[in-house]
């Protein structure tokens, strides 16, 4: 028997026979539910036979049959009642296990988030995309009516979403564009590094969503629950349906704070901070100012992450402050990086290593933060050993700058748009989905192998805007994204190593070497990040002004 687990209380299996009941009881199950009508196949034992054998094995049995492909809302509710009534764990069966899984999903719809239902079902080998709307609607069949229809629907009102909306409207004023995002505030996230160093105030990095949306865009203030790309539909929380002609997906990524044991419980206290959160970046600066001696640990999780240089940017700026304050020699700094190198593009590593040596930073590669004890001031890391095994390393700290593991949002990972790793599956050049030709993606959520930075989104937005309009017949040819990304590595207050590169780690400077040599620390590059990039973001990128970002047509 190939038994598949859906929850601690329920597993499902394909058709069973009388002889299987003793083994089922021996495996610890206490109840059996039959979801297959008698007489579907000539080799199928009747329920009465199963019930008798179950009784002999000390199991309770119930009969809740459903026709293949026709599980009703009422059957879902009845399954939930049976689960509440029967001794557990329960084993449910039908011909393949699909009907049993569907009933469980409908019964759980009101209490379990959709992504968990879809993920558990998928792990057990069952695709429930055909009942997604019913799950979103609390286990009930919704009325088949679109609440809204727009020519272009954009998922996400972050940097990528607003930039692509603005670029679309620059090319085609009057285009019917809607952005779906539940947030009230839009953040300039690259500024949080400087908030954590006392250079920016937090308020400089935040504006209301309403104030940054391009004129003429319809804002649908809601969260997305699911996608139905075959029907050109997006399902919102509450089972509202939005239809589209073209879809652009850019909701960013998910910071998994709970992915490190104990981290969420101690953030903002006990010396534990992170510049990856708006409300915590000021605490980073507070800790840096207060620390006069002791140990400071800076962690970096496995890739991919948002702005791969950000963990060490916080480290360099902190070390620079301690040096300027005359306490650097009394502070032990460690960088614990899950990766194997300091930075992914080798051309920039020598300049960074010079600062590592100058600040006396100990580098610990192949180490992933797995748990934090804030009150106890200890952090545990999983370390990759040379023989391929792993060991646990416990380190004490006075300050810990932690970066959580990161992944695609739940509603993306379980959708038909995702690849096996959970990211939106797009062509790395055109940014078009590999399966659904009227779907595009950009920003952090795509599976393109570029750095996940705002600079990448700035370059991607015009590409997506052009190619969306070309799909609609409004423009000719297509353009391609070259993988450009930029990471201004703040190595000290007033100096930056300006890393710029395309696919494959090819160095791609925007300025002549005599003006800014990106492989060396530059005062001009600092001025660019502090003074030029914020207004370029607010007044350029978010308003469709494609300075140094216009795409080149290739076909």
Automatic annotation (TrEMBL):
Keyword annotations of the record: Transferase
Superkingdom in the source lineage: Bacteria
Matching Pfam families: BLH_phosphatase (PF04273), Pyr_redox_2 (PF07992)
Ranges of residues in domain Rhodanese: 88-144
UniProt key word Nucleus: no
Keyword Transferase applies: yes
Molecular-function GO term, any one: transferase activity
NCBIfam families: TIGR01244 family sulfur transferase
Protein name: TIGR01244 family sulfur transferase
